[in-house]
Write a structure and sequence with these properties.
The chain is 35% helix and 24% strand. It is of the alpha/beta class. It has one domain: Vaccinia Virus protein VP39 (Rossmann fold, 3-Layer(aba) Sandwich), CATH 3.40.50.150. The model has no long low-confidence stretch (mean pLDDT 94).
């Protein structure tokens, strides 16, 4: 069941009963979150002033992040290509029944996606294509999609919008192994943005070849994360020390990208337990 809720900026979103979380920050607002946590830190406007752009949308959801990028590209007159995936096609369908306010004119993108279906790489895909915009959304579990398409998109994307549910309920899309696959699809200098500031997420990104930086705090006390492929990690000294030495920076692991969430969380907890027995002083972090 999909339950509608209204966020702080008046834009709507849904609450997932499966994951027990909303699709967007209630206090920040759905469209504001797309702008502040993804469009700005990924330098979408700046890049589109100079050249075309290729985006990977991890967890397409209601489509707000991608549609916000489409709006920027339409204003810049540049070509935009978006490849995304979403587990639940009903969320995309239901998004069209919401009031998008000033963004309503871009509903045509989702309508065309749902009309133009095909079967690609073993998945149902939704497709949109005109002379300025190409969008393809794979319908399926994220790890399965990424494993299937990663070779076709090696060193391809300029930007990644990484927007799953939180690591505590959706750890399978926050593991080092998942980020490693994502990294393979991102060109050097490409930017990944995500709302999470957790140590295991930042450590996993760093291990996967990204330089980690702080984003901004929107709708929460902690700042988001911006990661640049092939760059150095730039964090305040205290955060950098925690990332380098705290046992709580142990990332989630999912070696074959098919383990159930409970096993992924238990594996990390087991590593922390063993490390704490050897290095108990690390618990001060």
């Amino acid at each position: 069941m999909i339950k509608k809720i209204i966020t702080a900026d008046g834009s709507p979103t849904f609450f997932s009963e499966e994951y027990g979380e909303p699709y967007h920050s209630i206090t920040a607002g759905a469209f504001r979150e797309a702008e502040e946590k993804f469009i700005k830190p990924c330098r979408v406007r700046e890049t589109l002033r100079e050249r075309d752009l290729k985006i990977l949308d991890v967890c397409f959801g209601l489509g707000f992040n991608s549609v916000s990028a489409v709006k920027v590209a339409s204003e810049a007159g540049r070509r935009l290509l978006i490849i995304g995936f979403e587990k639940d096609i009903d969320v995309i369908k239901a998004s069209l029944r919401l009031d998008w306010g000033d963004m309503s004119g871009f509903k045509v993108v989702l309508k065309e996606l749902l009309r133009n279906r095909s079967f690609e790489d073993g998945f149902l895909t939704l497709n949109y294509c005109d002379k300025e915009l190409g969008v393809r959304v794979f319908i399926g579990e994220g790890r399965g999609v990424v494993k299937r398409i990663s070779d076709s998109y090696r060193d391809f994307f300029d930007v990644v919008f990484h927007d799953p549910f939180s690591p505590k309920v959706n750890p399978e899309l926050w593991s080092f192994d998942f980020f490693k696959k994502i990294s393979e699809m991102v060109r050097k200098g490409g930017i990944l943005a995500t709302y999470s500031s957790s140590l295991p997420v930042r450590k996993a990104l760093q291990m996967a070849g990204f330089g980690v930086r702080e984003g901004i705090a929107v709708g929460r006390k902690s700042k988001s994360t911006v990661a640049v492929k092939g760059a150095e990690t730039v964090l305040p000294d205290k955060l950098k020390r925690k990332l380098e030495s705290s046992i709580f920076a142990v990332p989630y692991r999912d070696p074959y990208l098919n383990d159930p969430p409970a096993l992924i969380k238990n594996r990390r907890n087991g590593c922390i337990y063993l490390l704490n027995r050897v290095y108990p002083f690390e618990c001060i972090y």
